[in-house]
User: What shape does this take?
Amino acid sequence: MEGMPAETRVKRLYQVWKGNNRFLCGGRLIFGPDAASLILSTLLIASPTIVFCYQVIAQILMNNRMPHKEDSNYQPSVLGYPFLLVAVVVLILDLVFLFMTSARDPGIVPRNTRAPEADEVFDVTTPSMEWIHGRTPHLRLPRTKEVIVNGHSIRVKYCETCLLYRPPRTSHCSICNNCVQKFDHHCPWVGQCIGLRNYKFFFLFVSTTTFLCIYVFTVSWLNILREKKNYGGSIWKSMTGEVVSLVLIVYTSIAVWFVGGITVFHLYLVSKSQTTYEHFRYRYDKRENPYRKGILRNFADLFFSKIPPSLNDFRSWVPDDTAFGYYPPNIGDVNISIKEKFDTELGHTEALPGYVEIISKLQNLDYSSVDGDSIDASRHEENVVNSFALPFDQESNESSRRAKVAAFDGKAEDGDKMVSNERSSEEICLTDG
Assistant: This one.
């Protein structure tokens, strides 16, 4: 393998990737974990459109029949080849946009194989006093730091899964288990995160779907109104006679409220240069949006700017044992250090002699025989918790206790000597007297 030692076992990056993504075509196509919903979305879009095309073809064939042409009372259908062509083209575009939204890298940030060093972080303004602990107990890094974007100070957070400070406008998707650039939301209908590299196609997808719904709805109504003359001028008879058009009207009128609402909402977000995540987190309600450039430039950036290349080459070769992100040591080992577990919860990173022994003894105590009248259970529980919350050195504490006892005994001996001396003096005085 080029660039790799012969004895090293290697795999493609997508084969060892720690996210929840699904890869096809050797890592060329990347989907989310719920990619099966893509099939449902395709059926919901393609099925009514195919039915509409079938109706148009049937009307075209009916119009070409000679008996109907000789009938003076017959009115030819409004449906024809132009309507069929528009429906087919829009459907193909809609499905292409859907696939490009779902099957591409949305802007995944590469994971680090190790946590950043402290000296790599403290060269920036870091006002936060909240430190990282929990899953990475040995790190002493601030949970947030500030970076400057277009003259504005932006606070970014540390991701304990990807072991990195997230770039501005980046968030970690809990479904895909990846940090995504310019994260908008995770769309269950496309089975993929919507981010920097596929937001344009997502916007075109929902917009095209909205147009398709409105188009089928409008043409179906035109067909019913045109066929009214063939049903004695009654609109109700025309609706019952054109059942396919009636079903399409009902279906599209329901669907357009959903996809149309999404389209209008994202038109608003693009005009404000916001993401869905930022909008619902009220990011710019109390401060200025550093990414806002005006409505025209915001739309120009969306439609005419070049999509940046992916930060990951999922077909690249990496060692088989490459680890991406943090994984606790000895995972699944029943002998994992108890001290490590409590240090993780309490945020302590220093070694504490005797700590494990104390906790082990406390865990092995049998409290079932303790009578509730002789001891207050809640007070006992509080004492146990406090012993965990205030870790100490057993040996030093024991030596301190012994020193106090020894000092107390010394004072007692001195007191006894004083009393003995006083008694001796009294006896001498009585004898002399």
About this structure: Residues 394-432 form the longest helix (39 residues). Residues 76 and 223 are 10 Å apart (CA to CA). Residues 326-401, 422-433 have pLDDT under 50 and may be disordered. The two ends are 113 Å apart (CA to CA).
